[in-house]
Amino acid sequence: MYSLSQSTGMALPTAIAHLILGVGIIFAVRDRGVASLLMDEGAAGVLTRRLLPAALLAPVVLGIVRLAGESAGIYETEFGTSLFALASILIYVILVLWSARVLRNSDKERVDLLALEQQARAHAEKARSEAEAARAEAERANNSKTDFLAVMSHELRTPLTAIMGYEELLSDGITGPVTELQRQQLGRINASARHLLGLIDEILTFARVDIGRERVRWESMSVNHTLTDAASLVQPMAADKKLRFVVELLDEDQSIQTDGTKLRQMLVNLLSNGIKFTDKGEVRLGCAVNASTLEVRIADTGVGIAAENIEDVFEPFWQAEQTATRKTGGTGLGLSVTRKLARLLGGDVTVASRMGAGTTFLLTLPMKAPAGEAVRRRDTPTTPTNPLRAVRI
Description:
The chain is an alpha/beta fold. It is 56% helix and 11% strand. It contains 8 helices and 8 strands; from the N terminus they run αααααβαββαββαβββ. The protein has helices spanning 12-26, 33-38, 43-71, 77-171, 180-210, 223-240, 260-276, 334-344; strands at 219-222, 244-248, 255-258, 282-289, 293-300, 348-353, 359-366, 376-377. Strands 2-4-5-7-6 form a 5-stranded mixed sheet, covered by helices on one side. Strand 4 (282-289) and strand 5 form a beta hairpin. Helix 6 runs parallel beside helix 7 (260-276).
């Protein structure tokens, strides 16, 4: 083609260099112009990448064919020009129709994809609505259960308190002399009533904590006195089973800011649980203060807990013995209530155990109340009057 116009001719290396430079200029800025169309991911990019090569190459190829035919004498210039025009029109019509079909298929796929996305969104919205409805229903059922437990417990306390009051009147001989046999029977009534009262209080506490109505009364108290007070409540249980009951107090008593009633309840729950599942050996209560944290360990030599049930013991109503003929009593709420109360006070309860090798519960509580909480001082001695230190029952 150099011979067509020698006055505007160009050396081949120069032409190649200009071609490379032109392509580089086109792609120097990719966010606008021809480069942005070539690199577009949508329909514009698809059409540009399909049509541009044909638009550039078709005239060149057809021109070469036309000139080759004319030079060979196959046809005249007029026929070659007509052939060139007809072939160009035919090629571009084919490209347009092909591109239209590609766009139609692309639009169809996009419409189908949008329909699928809408269906998926509708299903997801329906599933979310159903999940929210189910969660709301579960919360209503749980609140109803908790309210029922609270109301039932309150209603049971009223006649139970009357039973205990009349038992005390009978034991005191208000209505007449009481024989020794009658006094023993009244004692059993009192013990059973107090046991039932403890179960009711356990259910009440669980209900209040479960719905977030349990209040914390921060107070400053003696660690040793509180531990001794709780230990004295379960000491008769250990004596009845002829267990060695050991209480190890702090060498130097310290004050802790917490809810004394809840701390005593947690200690009684853990100690009575250890005594309940220990038939021989000992139950040991120990404590230490580590980095502003009170650590209380209750260890027993009882039956232990299987590895797969370690965390189950803190679930509400879970029982180590699931049969109707189980030997140990209780509601299965003691440990669950203990963990909830510990976390309410900023601490926690953990357990370590092996089957046949006993169980150790670790109760941790902060020594100081949260900032901004009002703390009152409990009127108790700073040291226990009757410390249970390494006592054998």
